[in-house]
Fold this sequence. Notes:
The chain is an alpha+beta fold. It has helices spanning 11-24, 40-50, 54-57, 87-91, 109-123, 138-146; strands at 2-5, 63-69, 75-82, 96-100, 128-134, 150-153, 156-157, 160-168. It has a four-stranded antiparallel beta sheet, sandwiched between helices. Strands 5, 6, 7 and 8 form a four-stranded antiparallel beta sheet that branches. The radius of gyration is 16 Å and the shape is globular.
Amino acid sequence: MKLVKYLEIHKNQYEEYIREWEESGENIVPYAATRMDKSFAELQEKWKEDETEIMYQKGFVPSTLYFLIGPEEQIYGAIHFRHQLNDRLRQNGGHIGYGIRPSKRQNGYASEMLSLLLDELWKKGYREVLITCDDDNAPSAKTIEKNGGILRDKPVFEGKLTRRYWINAPGS
């Protein structure tokens, strides 16, 4: 298993991955991985722009999209890292959002993907990250807790009970 940035995936990999999500009828998670009515080349450009300070002008924060690649070079999931928090992300969303394609769930891939990203973030000097999930999303809570998430509180956000976890870098 390997975690790669959006620039390292191929159109065919992405098309096959996103088609499964679309056919499932579920909301694609993270949202940043959706097609957004764009060609693959346009998506690559959008994801590249997402990493820049231009995002502040659009009311967002810079972010990076990564994909978990399995041994057969198939995309298993996506994980979206927001470089900073704004007020809304502090309440709900946090630094990280992730999702595993429907056919690859319940195999520990979300936990592995999160672990790989956290390793990268600690190497880059991040000391802590916030991750949130709906209170009734037991699989996500388990994934976060397995990776060192400490439940800080359960606020209500837009009518839904939300779990807010902080994960600290080793030695922090």
